[in-house]
Structure formats: structure tokens, C-alpha cells
Amino acid sequence: MKNLLSILFVISSTFSVFSQTDITDYLEGRSFKNEQTGLVVKYGYISQLNTNGITFINSYGDKHYFMNCSTQKSSDNRYAVFTNCMNPESGSGVGKIFAYRNKIVIVASDGEMVYELMD
Fold first, then answer.
1. Which domains does the chain have, with CATH numbers?
2. What DSSP line would sit under 34-85, residue for residue?
3. CA–CA gap between residue 86 and residue 33 (Å, rounded)
4. pLDDT band, residue 119 (cuts 50/70/90)
5. Distance of alpha carbon 117 from alpha carbon 32, whole angstroms
6. HSE value, Cβ hemisphere, 13 Å, CA-based, for 20
7. pLDDT at residue 17, rounded to an integer
8. pTM of the prediction?
9. Which of 62, 68, 78, 67 is nearest to 23 (CA)?
């Protein structure tokens, strides 16, 4: 019984630490993929631009960067919302990005796309 309680304590502590980790730190370098389009999205440092931002990678390996995002985090660090992200080449935007630990949802005027966390 004592071992079972110890195991349960370790598991609950792990979930507690996981939920308290800063969401943007957690997202850093992780890849999310839309199964329908094959498009991959990453959040993190973009060395070519010397800033953090969103990177889109298509099935050919072409990368499109979006930077200067306004970031809001939920008080419990369960998600972050990125807005006003700008492509430095064209000045275009990407919509509103809701980033969770297991998925990213991008909402634009023409609908929304869901990207699932890749292993």
C-alpha cells in the first residue's frame, strides 16, 4: 500500500509540474502537423530573423516565417494566443493562433485549421 501511495504521489507531482511549465517554453522547438495538408508549424527562435516566431514548413521543405507576434498566456499556462504575426517578406499575417500543449489551432477569416503535436 505504501508503494502504491508513493507511485500515485510521483504521478500527481509530474502532472502538476507539467501543467505549471510556461507554455511558450514548452512549445519551443516542438512541431505540429496538419494531417490534411501536411503543413508543419513550429514556435520558437528563428535564427535567420534573430527573434521568436512561428515557422510554417510545407511538404517540399519550404519555410515561411512569421514574427513580432503579440502573445497572451492563460493564467494557468494551459495555452497561449499569438496574434498580429507578420511575414517579414510580404507583410502578410496568419490569423489568430491558439497554442496548446498537444495542438495548435489557427483561426483565420476563411476558417480554422488544427495541427496535432508530432512525436
1. 2-117 (2.40.128)
2. -TTT--EEEEEEETTTTEEEEEEE-TT--EEEEE--EEEE-TTSSEEEEES-
3. 21
4. confident
5. 4
6. 6
7. 45
8. 0.79
9. 78
